[in-house]
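Hi W., the zinc ion complex you wanted:
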Amino acid sequence: MRRTIWLFLLTATLLLGSMVEQKRWPQGETLLGFLSKNGIPAKLYYGLDREEKELASEIRAGSPYIVLKDANGTIEHLLVPISEELQIHIYKDGKYKFRLDPIHYQKIEDAFSLAMEHSPYVDILRATDGNKKLANEFVSAFKHSVDFSHSIRKGDKLAIIYSQKLRLGEPFGMPTIQAAMVEAGGRRYYIFNYHDRYYDEKGKELESFFLKRPVRNARITSRFTRRRWHPILHRYRAHLGVDFGARRGTPVVAAGDGRVLFAGRKGGYGKVVIIYHGQGYKTLYAHLSKFRRSIRAGKRVRQGQVIGYVGSTGLSTGPHLHFGLYKKGRAINPLSIVKITKSRLSGKKLKEFKQLVKRYKKELEDLAKKPKAPNKVEFVKSLVEYKGGEDGKS
Ligand SMILES: [Zn+2]
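Structure:
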């Protein structure tokens, strides 16, 4: 059945290409709102379980979604990404159905080096035909070790080893810099990515973002998973945060210093506070029973300050806090950061890290010997995404 749908989509696309549209998700739009505007019964949304409703609240403004309509303009398929791994797939099979499908993407790994003409940002843009995300990532990764505005001289070198996801032939999601080097003022500076955080060559962390547990005396009732296949339900699931079971009314505190971006209702998340902490980090606190009185968008908060109280808004089950952490828009496991208490790697982790440094440092130094342009790969725009099978491997 599943395969039939994919093949149908592929065939329909090839024969009737004009009926497939890729658009950007509008600011402030909810899945429920979108369904009602497009003639899809609201009971589809109300019939979702709580995990699915939470995931529907993860749709981001500007996210590229795909609609396939029949000759009468009725939606046959709707594909909306909720993370870099999964997308909501609503499709007509008699009546409308909902499920989560893996996003099929290509991952390219590449490396390049150059002698600087202007600044790292401008030179990376030029070398990569305008990959702003990569240029930004590079600059922010070195922010704490090099002052680009003063110490760079013309002819200084930089080298980057990175990977980028491509969906339908276009960059999708954030690029990952595995390692990079920059020469400045006669010195070479390195950064190495280890479990999504940047370190210098000695294993000292270059960011300083630490989290506090947002509720006290709570137990974890559901952990973070980006994508898993549920063998019994026979469908994909994900949980883009950590749930803490706690009594209604238990104070919820800000996990770090920051500024409130949003305090209000957000679909299946119910009453939500979102805080921006700088360096691309955001935290989300969902299902609150109420906000603390002074908490509203724009308000500065300190780590440990009460922002609201545990509840079960947006859900029908018991009170708990859903706690989400995002780095540059990508959901990451909050527990992976809560656990880090030192800013320097040690023990087994340091040993593992040193191996990684050895390998990448050699690669970067070889790369920097003479300028090497990024690989130019011609990506044919195609809907190969839809050839995917049950296992979701791309
Ligand atoms: Zn949750």
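DSSP finds nine helices and 22 strands in the chain.

W.
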